[in-house]
């Protein structure tokens, strides 16, 4: 991530509609995010994560993809992706996930990656099923949207 990615990162991290699909449920200040970009070592072994900006062929930032919860002992990690709403349903998510799978196998040498998806997110479930992720478990009351709890699917892809 580069300093010029701050505005998009700020927008995505503070988008309340995304809070129920991940671990974030507090707003981040520009200062905090600027500090994160400036001090990230870009080393998965020390940071336990890698965050990447997704760009289209015109060089426009369209989203963020990340590998988080990296576990070097068991060689697994969680994948995350957010495509900005104006760029959704254009094939970016599928293309980016395929690239992240390639990166995870050939660069990070992971044995498996996983995602946690709200059972109500039919589009994401369909996407990950298409990309050969297997549903491993249902996590009861795993995600909270501020009003109610939602079950989530743990989906794995052995590389």
List keywords for this structure.
single chain, 159 residues, six-stranded mixed sheet, 5 helices, 29% helix
Itemize the secondary structure elements and their pairings.
Layout: H1 6-13, H2 30-39, H3 44-47, E1 50-55, E2 61-71, E3 76-83, H4 92-106, E4 112-118, H5 122-130, E5 134-144, E6 149-158
Parallel strand pairs: 3-4
Antiparallel strand pairs: 1-2, 2-3, 4-6, 5-6
Helix pairs in contact: 1-2
Overall description:
29% of the residues lie in helices and 33% in strands. The chain has helices at residues 6-13, 30-39, 44-47, 92-106, 122-130, and strands at residues 50-55, 61-71, 76-83, 112-118, 134-144, 149-158. A six-stranded mixed β-sheet has the order 1-2-3-4-6-5, sandwiched between helices. Strand 3, helix 4 and strand 4 (112-118) form a beta-alpha-beta unit. The longest helix is centred in the middle third of the chain and has 15 residues, at 92-106. It is globular. The model has no long low-confidence stretch (mean pLDDT 85).
Largest beta-sheet details: 6 strands, mixed
Radius of gyration, CA atoms, in whole angstroms: 15 Å
SS-based class: alpha+beta
Please report the total strand number as a whole number: 6
Question: Between the first and last Cα atoms, what is the distance in angstroms?
Answer: 26 Å
Portion in helices: 25-40%
Question: Which band does the percent of strand residues land in?
Answer: 25-35%
């Amino acid at each position: 991530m580069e300093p010029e990615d701050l505005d998009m990162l700020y927008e995505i991290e503070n988008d309340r509609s995304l809070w129920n699909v991940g671990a974030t449920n507090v707003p981040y200040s520009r200062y905090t995010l600027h500090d994160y970009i400036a001090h990230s070592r870009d080393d998965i072994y020390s940071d336990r994560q890698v965050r990447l900006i997704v760009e289209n062929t015109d060089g426009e930032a369209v989203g963020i993809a990340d590998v988080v919860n990296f576990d070097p002992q068991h060689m697994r990690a969680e994948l995350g992706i957010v495509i900005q709403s104006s760029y959704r349903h254009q094939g970016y998510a599928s293309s980016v996930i395929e690239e992240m799978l390639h990166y995870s196998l050939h660069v990070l040498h992971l044995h498996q990656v996983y995602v946690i998806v709200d059972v109500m997110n039919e589009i994401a479930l369909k996407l990950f099923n298409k990309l050969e992720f297997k549903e491993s478990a249902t996590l009861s009351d795993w995600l909270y949207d501020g009003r109610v709890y939602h079950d989530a699917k743990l989906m794995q892809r052995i590389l």
